[in-house]
Amino acid sequence: MLRSSTRVAAAVAAVSAVLLAIATPAFAHEVRKVGAYQLTVGWQHEPVYAGTQNAVQIFIHDANGQPVDDLGNPVTLKVQVIFGSKTSEVLDLEPSFDADTGLGTHGEWDAAITPTEPGNYTFHLTGSIRGQTIDQKFTSGDETFNPVDAPATIEFPTKTPSAQEQAAAITRLQATTADAASDASSAKDSASTATTLAIVGIVVAVVLGGVAIGLAVSGRKGRTSA
Question: For 58, how many CA atoms within 13 A lie in the half-sphere containing its CB?
Fold first, then answer.
């Protein structure tokens, strides 16, 4: 009898674990209780790669664990994405669940964005949920949600240069072009100077030649008169 009870308890625990896994996002997200609501925040697609379209993903549940599909009209809850000293425009959150078709996930809200650099990102939520003010920041990390990875880690056979590498290459090219333009300008100036000197030399030679001819003619006239 005791053995049967143990088996039943184990089966119930296994079923509960499966149901919990189904109800909970199956990837790295930060779960935080904010007032009367539970917010589960992270990337929509993980792992996350720079240059690949993704979205800020937020699951909202009330104090009873019920998903929140209605944030009012218009939706006042917004999100901004922060990377280092840079902050994105204010992004609108769109509901995943469509009441007309029944498709999507209850309580899920998404804001599309394409992260372009690898590293840690912060999601700044502001606005309100059913009258409750929200002002919270969620930052990627080991205990929250995934940082953005460089796509080179999964690229094959050719690895695409990262945005930083492309920017560095452009900077080097611009510097080389500027140097070449400067050298060309200097060469042009030198050529112009040389041309000017040559012209001056020719003029001087012509003048001196004229003077010499004049002197020679004058000398002849003098001898003839004598």
Answer: 32
